[in-house]
Specification:
Order of helices and strands: HHHH
Largest sheet: none
Distance between the termini: 86 Å
Structural class: mainly alpha
Radius of gyration: 23 Å
Low-confidence stretches: none
Number of strands: 0
Shape: elongated
Strand content: under 5%
Number of helices: 4
Mean pLDDT: 83
Oligomer: single chain
Helix content: over 70%
């Protein structure tokens, strides 16, 4: 009996923590100024929120009922793997598409890197064209 109650409490606390992190994520998505900071809020806190909720559910069923769910383990694994990667890809695509940073941004560390690579890419294209015309 005591084990079931402690399983319910642990599960409920983790699910509540997950809900709080998901709420922070929603607030961050609404309040933050540009796609880059919104992506950060969406990937970090929502991933943590979903992971806490799934771990809480897993522990609840494991402690209370003695039921181990491989589906929850797979869900935890795939959320942990895909959410940050998807946010990174979306942010990188936005940067390459020249979506402007917020006015409050003080530094753009990727600008020099992409400018150098863009110049090198243009020079390569010019060399190819020159070689083909000869």
């Amino acid at each position: 009996m005591l084990l079931n109650v402690s399983g319910e409490i642990i599960g409920a606390v983790l699910i509540l923590i997950g809900a709080i992190f998901s709420l922070f994520s929603a607030i961050g998505i609404v309040r933050l100024p540009d796609v880059y900071t919104r992506s950060h809020a969406a990937s970090k806190s929502s991933t943590l929120g979903v992971l806490c909720a799934l771990v809480g559910t897993l522990l609840y069923f494991l402690i209370s009922d003695g039921y181990f769910s491989i589906r929850l383990i797979l869900g935890i694994f795939f959320v942990f793997l895909t959410a940050p990667v998807a946010a990174h890809v979306i942010t990188r695509a936005a940067y390459r598409d020249k979506v402007p940073l917020a006015e409050q941004s003080v530094q753009d560390e990727l600008k020099d890197y992409y400018m150098e690579n863009e110049i090198a890419r243009i020079e390569d294209k010019v060399e190819i064209v020159n070689y083909q015309t000869k």
